[in-house]
Design brief:
The complex is a heterodimer of chains A (113) and B (109). With 113 residues, chain A is an all-beta fold. Chain A is 0% helix and 51% strand. Chain B is mainly β. Helices cover 0% and strands 57% of the residues of chain B. The chains are: A mainly beta (113), B mainly beta (109). Chains A and B meet through strand 10 of A and strand 5 and strand 9 of B.
């Protein structure tokens, strides 16, 4: 069974440029998360989806961040315009398994210059 | 507010035993998770506790005391590959996950 797939793995952009990240969760997992993780810190929730509905986006900086999950499968996270402080790893996860644990993708490492 | 505390860093010797503690204050409780994260990689699930007591899974065990808001992860027969960060996460009454900052475990030969 394929795991959570994310792309790109690495992205380097200049500030004020746009960037987009893509995530394909494990088949059958209805709950999808986007997290931001800085070095030495735990994941910080950006948005949580139940199927195609965003059920928790309270931590998403909506002035520059947007996300969508059309058809309740793949999801895209966009930043426009990017700022220096957005440099981080963006993790996508889907929820499943017997205990409702999260399965994470390998992450997209963003560097904003 | 909701809070999870873990030591920032711990050091242990190969072959030894180490206990990583996690204390939490959350709005309700619907389970506690431990994840392992190697440098530059994504977190991977280790264990889940929802009732008080010890859950054993091979070399790893996790303990929970809900009345004390306390959990620990016990790693036995440490191997060099156990060098990683260990993240504690609690699911609150709304099934929202609250994450600790992680404990970096350094294993020395």
């Amino acid at each position: 069974e394929a795991g959570v797939v994310q792309s790109p793995r690495y992205k380097i952009i200049e500030k004020k440029q746009p960037v987009a990240f893509w995530c394909n969760p494990i088949s059958g997992h209805n709950t999808l998360y986007w997290y931001l993780q800085n070095l030495g810190q735990g994941p910080e929730l950006l948005i949580r989806y139940e199927n195609e509905e965003a059920v928790d986006d309270s931590q998403l900086p909506k002035d520059r961040f947007s996300a969508e999950r059309l058809k309740g499968v793949d999801s895209t996270l966009k930043i426009q315009p990017a700022e220096l402080g957005d440099s981080a790893v963006y993790l996508c996860a889907s929820k499943g398994g017997p205990t409702g644990e999260l399965f994470f993708g390998e992450g997209s490492r963003l560097t904003v210059l | 507010g909701q809070n999870i505390d873990q030591p920032t860093e711990m050091t242990a010797t190969e072959g030894a035993i180490v206990q990583i503690n996690c204390t939490y204050q959350t709005s309700g409780f619907n389970g506690l998770f431990w994840y392992q994260q190697h440098a530059g990689e994504a977190p991977t699930f280790l264990s889940y506790n929802v009732l008080d007591g010890l859950e054993e899974k091979g070399r790893f065990s996790s303990f929970l005391s809900r009345s004390k808001g306390y959990s620990y992860l016990l790693l036995k027969e440490l191997q060099m590959k156990d060098s990683a960060s260990y993240l504690c996460a609690v699911q609150d009454s709304n099934y929202q996950l609250i994450w600790g900052a992680g404990t970096k475990l350094i294993i020395k030969p």
